[in-house]
Design brief:
The complex is a heterodimer of chains A (about 325) and B (about 325).
Chain A: H1 3-32, H2 39-69, H3 82-89, H4 91-122, H5 128-140, H6 143-153, H7 166-173, H8 187-214, H9 217-225, H10 230-241, H11 243-258, H12 262-267, H13 277-287, H14 291-322
Chain B: H1 6-19, H2 24-71, H3 75-80, H4 95-102, H5 111-142, H6 148-157, H7 163-188, H8 198-220, H9 225-233, H10 238-249, H11 251-267, H12 270-275, H13 285-294, H14 300-320, H15 322-334
Classes of the chains: A mainly alpha (about 325), B mainly alpha (about 325).
Chain lengths: ~325, ~325
């Protein structure tokens, strides 16, 4: 990087911000000087317009377009549902789907389970904040960084040489042979799932811990006076009290898991039978020049996400009505 | 006795039976023993809990810790000995960092450029998305118009659209409209390179908007009505109310969202891969890291240091602004 490059980049940032500031300034100026007639509409358009135009051009239209693309081949000709047939018949594509199901089943349940237990155990304990920070930290770092961190844990060296990956070293301590973890089908998918669980558990801990603190102490004390054991109190008072938090955690992690791309990309590149829908979508659309197949995969992803979100909204609605 | 459990309940009953034969002082002592037993039992369960919590905390921290240690070890030690043997194989160096950041050789990672790119992508996007979303959220919450609820619901629903669905068409739009404009600009004003951040900025801003509008709307719509009306009575129009009342009051939530957006954009790989072109001119750290991790015969001395270069900014943001971060997280997840 030469000084010139750096100056060019700084110039770009400043210019970008300046143009943006000028546009926003102009909008606010126009809002100030809105004509008397149709004033509200004029102001509304200026406030809401920019965001709406961006969303329409960058999200709404592309989504619709992608839905259409999924019915075309690489030349752009209409081929009906061939891309979907490909997805549900080709062995490699089926492995991708199967892996995605495995991810979606394992990550939310395990991450939420561990997160809940952890949140309960550290509740009101000494050093609660430190405990929380330690587990929460992976949430802040990138999936790429997480991928590298764990790739190092899974690193393999032949048995006669000292190991540098922690997992193989542990295997050896227990008298086993080192394994090329990331190239061993099925085990490798599980090990990638572990990375995602590692990242998401912190989110579960923070949200659930806040929910647990929201459970009324009177109820807990009442249960205690009635002679409920710790477990009974947890089962019958705490758990119902944090239902909303649990739903949010499970659904959010589920959606994040469905879209996971970076971890697979960094750790195996989708090789050795580890691909998932989001990764395969990228590979097909941008590497294999098959935008139709990529679009079909994206659409399936969308269809998988919808019920989760709808359920989430319904539960929250119901809770609001109760309140 | 607030710590009574089932077992002390039965102890109380036995207590009643025996009490006749005991004088008051002895009874007190007995009671004391009973609650002590309960306390021991509680401590036991809380001991397994503590062990579990400690175990999780260690397992969750160890991988990162190992990478951090390794990034300061000389190349030959990283590749021949485990980081947990660091006491037997003593040796520390900063070479890894100076190599990945400063080395100008063509094969070096040259992370300096990418680091600048990451900042150059992230900072403007945070500003763009926050400002645009705040304005939209204000309009949705406080300017009355028909179907405003519907517009809000549609924007909320857009959150479900996976990025993946928007990538291909958006890229096509950029290549047909933005690219020629950029080339033209480059010819008119040569200091502006033809590979610019504009594509990535716009893409990230758009993808951040639905969540941003949703979060900010939740907050802005709950500003007391009286405040708004007082401002209106004083003759303020929407623009003035927005700038003088809404923005100052919304600073906490704006900060929360800005931190979110910052981490999200800084950590993103997918958008970067599709829209940045992949050169040192524009591509962010994550993309370079993914490349390094994917290349054959990966050299861990580079990868460990490179990973920490990319982690250090999010970690600083995280540890210094954790309160805002958590607040944003909870606001986004517990309000429907």
């Amino acid at each position: 990087m030469t000084t010139n490059d750096l100056l060019g980049k700084i110039f770009q940032i400043v210019l970008g911000l300046a143009v943006f500031a000028a546009v926003i300034g102009l909008i606010l100026f126009l809002i100030d000087r809105a004509p008397k007639r149709g004033r509200d509409w004029f102001q509304l358009a200026l406030f809401l317009g920019p965001a709406c135009v961006l969303l329409a051009v960058g999200l709404l239209y592309p989504a619709v377009r992608t839905a259409f693309t999924s019915f075309t081949n690489r030349a752009g000709e209409f081929i009906g549902i061939d891309n979907y047939v490909w997805m549900f018949t080709q062995p490699e594509a089926l492995i991708t789907l199967g892996n995605t199901v495995l991810w979606v089943v394992l990550v939310p349940t395990v991450a939420t389970g561990i997160g809940l237990a952890y949140a309960v155990f550290i509740d009101k304990s000494r050093g609660e904040r430190v405990y929380k920070s330690l587990v929460f930290m992976p949430v802040a770092i990138s999936f790429v960084g997480a991928g590298i961190i764990w790739k190092f844990v899974y690193e393999y060296r032949p048995a006669e040489r000292p190991q540098i990956g922690l997992l193989n070293q542990i295997v050896i301590w227990f008298g086993g042979e080192p394994v090329l973890w990331l190239q061993e089908p099925f085990v490798n998918t599980l090990l990638l799932v572990v990375v995602m669980i590692w990242v998401q558990t912190g989110f579960a801990v923070v949200v659930l811990s806040a929910s647990i603190k929201g459970v009324p102490t009177e109820q807990l004390e009442a249960a205690e006076l009635d002679g409920a054991t710790n477990w009974q109190r947890f089962r019958n008072v705490t758990l119902p009290g944090i239902r909303g938090g649990l739903v949010v955690v499970v659904t959010t992690i589920t959606i994040a898991t469905l879209k996971v791309f970076d971890i697979v990309r960094v750790m195996t590149g989708g090789n050795f039978n580890t691909s998932v829908i989001a990764n395969e979508m990228y590979t097909q659309a941008f590497r294999a020049a098959e935008p139709g197949r990529g679009a079909a995969l994206a659409l399936v992803l969308f269809l998988l996400v919808v019920p989760v979100v709808v359920y989430n909204i319904r539960v929250l609605r119901k809770q609001r009505e109760i309140r | 006795m607030s710590s009574t459990t089932g077992s002390t309940g039965s102890a109380d009953r036995t207590d009643r039976d025996v009490s006749k034969q005991l004088d008051a002082a002895a009874r007190d002592r007995y009671n004391l023993d009973g609650s002590k037993a309960a306390r021991v039992k509680r401590r036991l369960t809380s001991r397994t809990a503590t062990v579990f919590a400690l175990l999780i905390a260690v397992v969750w921290t160890l991988p990162t810790f190992g990478l951090l240690i390794s990034s300061f070890r000389p190349a030959d030690l990283i590749n021949t000995t485990g980081w947990w043997t660091v006491f037997e194989n003593w040796g520390w160096t900063l070479d890894n960092y100076s190599e990945v950041l400063l080395s100008a050789s063509a094969t070096a990672p040259q992370l300096g450029s990418y680091f600048v790119n990451s900042l150059a992508i992230t900072i403007p996007v945070v500003v763009f998305a926050t400002v645009l979303a705040a304005m939209a959220a204000y309009a949705l919450a406080w300017i009355k118009f028909p179907f405003s609820d519907w517009v809000f619901v549609i924007i909320f629903a857009l959150q479900i659209v996976p990025l993946q669905m928007a990538l291909i068409p958006l890229l096509q739009i950029f290549t047909t409209t933005l690219k020629p404009t950029q080339e033209w600009l480059h010819e008119v004003i040569p200091i502006i390179p033809d590979e610019t951040y504009v594509q990535v900025w716009i893409a990230h801003t758009i993808f951040g908007l639905p969540l941003a509008i949703f979060l900010l709307h939740n907050f802005i719509s709950e500003i007391p009505r009286e405040l708004m009306e007082a401002a209106r009575v004083d003759g303020a129009n929407h623009g003035q109310i927005f700038l003088r009342v809404v923005v100052p009051l919304s600073v906490p939530i704006l900060a929360s969202f800005a931190i979110f957006q910052f981490l999200w954009v800084w950590n993103d790989l997918l958008v970067a891969l599709v829209f940045s072109g992949g050169t040192a001119d524009v591509a962010p750290l994550t993309q370079r890291l993914a490349e390094l991790a994917g290349s054959r015969g990966q050299s861990w001395q580079r990868l460990t240091a490179a990973a920490f270069v990319s982690l250090v900014v999010p970690l600083i943001v995280f540890f210094s602004l954790q309160r805002y971060f958590v607040r944003g997280l909870l606001a986004g997840s517990t309000k429907g």
